[in-house]
Amino acid sequence: MSVPAPSPAPRGAAPPGQPRKAATAAWIGSALEYYDFFIYGSAAALIFPDVFFDESDPATATLLSLATFGVAYAARPVGAFFLGHVGDRAGRKKIMVFTLVLMGVSTFLIGCLPTRDQVGTLAPVLLVLCRILQGISAAGEQASANSMTLEHAPPHKRGFFTSFTLSGTQGGQLIATLVFLPVAALPEDQLLAWGWRLPFWLSVVVAVVGYVIRRKLDETPAFEQQAATEGVAKMPLAVLARDHWADVLRVVAGALVASVSTIFTVWALAYATSDSVGMSRTAMLWVGALANVVALGAIPLWAMLSDRIGRRPVYLVGAVGSAVAMFLYLWAISTGSYALTFLLGIVAFGVVYSAANGVWPAFYGEMFSTRVRLSGVAIGTQIGFAVAGFAVTFAAQIAGPDGDDWFAVALFTAALCVPPVVAALSARETHRVPTEQLGGPDDREAARAETVTA
Length: 454
Fold this sequence. Notes:
Blueprint (H helix, E strand, L loop, with lengths): L17 H29 L1 H4 L6 H33 L1 H19 L5 H4 L2 H31 L5 H27 L3 H6 L4 H18 L5 H8 L7 H8 L1 H11 L3 H14 L8 H29 L1 H25 L2 H28 L7 H26 L7 H11 L1 H9 L16 H11 L1
Helix pairs in contact: 1-3, 1-4, 1-6, 1-7, 1-9, 1-13, 3-4, 3-6, 3-17, 4-6, 4-9, 6-7, 6-17, 7-14, 7-16, 12-17, 12-19, 13-14, 13-15, 13-17, 13-18, 14-15, 14-16, 15-16, 15-18, 15-19, 17-18
């Protein structure tokens, strides 16, 4: 008796198991990318002013060190234009592998750099060059991972599956913090001599694991169907400018909400451990670690809620709530109270900010069609993230000569949350639109029809 062949998967559907594989690949890759990115942020706040800049002027050294953190954000829009173009023409998988390798190499090289005492002003120049490579890598990482998971995901679980990209981001920050805890506890002379290099060298391990996983991942069915039927866009940027310019502007505005993350992880860390407050470096690193542990659980929960009630309401909770929560968190630091700082740090970053952070991968990706999704998300987010990256430098200036005007910094951060709110209010709700109709001229009608039949 012959056994009937299994029915083929519907056209454009992901093979069984691929959504989970895509989510896992996105998580691990993002964890590496943002492990690398945020060990740099921690080092820029705590170590690099003494290692790469003039120690005779601590305030200026800290400002310059934080500015190098922002340099990568300036490089990200440039990388987004190039990597977005290639990803929409050649596929998501190629970009995911390339960005992983580039980030791993550039981060390892930072750990090998000579110091200012060894080579003078060449040291910060080399540091900036490596930081630019990190920025180019990050420009394509999240957009390619978002596109990969969204296009593999079941239609009514896109929020949940795409949230793994941002869960990976939080996981990377957590790993970076946990690695820095024993390093920061080293005696000062050992920390500045060699200890700070260890976290940068350890990135190689995660890079190898992520490379193996991503090499085995299938290209998305949506991209393959697009290539086989209508074909890929020869000039994705031209299509993007013609048909999706308003959505690109929305993503740029929405991406400014990332300022909350950079202020929390970099400026607040520098402020809390400064002479004006005097909190322990180790304790403040634990605030970030615990907040990220909470975020790992909160992000998928917020994302699943957005699959039920929509992207916009959940995103708005995160954007508006973060504007308020930043005042409370920085106030807690100013009091020198460890209990308040831990509590409000976890609430602000682990819970409230996670609402916007967990939903935006689906929210932004669903604004674009398959032909230009990677370009649209990459360019829009990286322009907005560039502003967010330099928010740390602006915050250091706004905080005054003593670096202790926390209220001005909180007000500045809240102001940067206004454009994301406007962007969300002006965007269409897409959580019920079928994947193949996203970004098309009839996605509004599809959303209405899905709502009626749901």
